[in-house]
Each structure stands twice: as structure tokens, then as C-alpha cells.
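Re: weekly structure request thread

Next one in the queue (165 aa):
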Amino acid sequence: MRIFFLALASAACGFMLSACVKNTQVAESSTSTSTEDTEQSTEVVMPNSDCHNCGMPSLEYPKWVSRADDLYFCSPRCLMIKCMKDPKIKTATTMTVIEYYETKPLAVKDAFFVIGSDVTGPMGNDFIPFADQKAAQDFMAEHKGKKILRFADLTQELLNEALGR
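Done, posted below.
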């Protein structure tokens, strides 16, 4: 009888331990292992990662994702729209976009944006960001861009023009 209770207690502990392991998330890792019969994956969801303008999952567009402090946007377009709707977004400590050619974060205040080109972002017409004016000019000539602008120059009129309204 004693062996029965020890086996039962051991099984109960094993069950509780496996339940704890299943509910634990590993931060900043994503793994996928597959065999013929089993497939296992772990997905990490970042807080506030959906676009704060349109609701799209921002992290699905890594070449376009933009940020204002801890707020994510699926593209520079959505960041600009949100800035015009909610001016306090412009006061964010850190605002970044992904530079078009280098695909590295770039401070919004340092970017040169091409509008009206034949290159579109996840939501359509977009603000295509560049680290320097020469790259923006070359892109504009190659992709039929209409104008280069800086974030500080953004107005509702320029936003409407960029969006084709």
C-alpha cells in the first residue's frame, strides 16, 4: 500500500511540474522543431506590438515597423497619421523608422522621407525613409517620387498629399 501512495504522489508531482513548464514562456526566443509525427513551437508576443494606428501586427513587417517610445506602428505612414491625430506622440523620447536601404533603425528627426513613389508599404502609399538626402534623391528619381520631406515639416496637407487624398 505504501508503494501505491508513493507512486501516486510521484505521478501527481510530475503532472503539476509538466503543467508549470507548459505555461512558462521563454523571453526573446522562437524555436521550431519538427519530426514526422510532432511539431513544437514557442511564440513570444511583445506587449503593444500591434500598430497603434490601424491595429495590424507590426512585427510581421520588420522592414517597415516604426516606433514612438513603446508604441509600435506597422509603417512610417501609420506613425505619421497617428502624429497628426494625436500631437503628443510627436513628443516621444525615441521615435524610429527603418531606413529603406540599410534596414536599420533611424531616428525620425534625422530621416529624409520620399512621398508619392511607386514603392508602397503595408498600408499602401507610404513615407519611404532614408538616412541622407542623396539616397532619398536617388530613390525619388528611380521610383517616381514626388517630394522629399523631413518630419519637422509634416503638416496635415503634406500628409494628405502623401496618402494620395
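Residues 2-22 form the longest helix (21 residues). The chain has two domains: 2-41, 58-162.
Next request, please.
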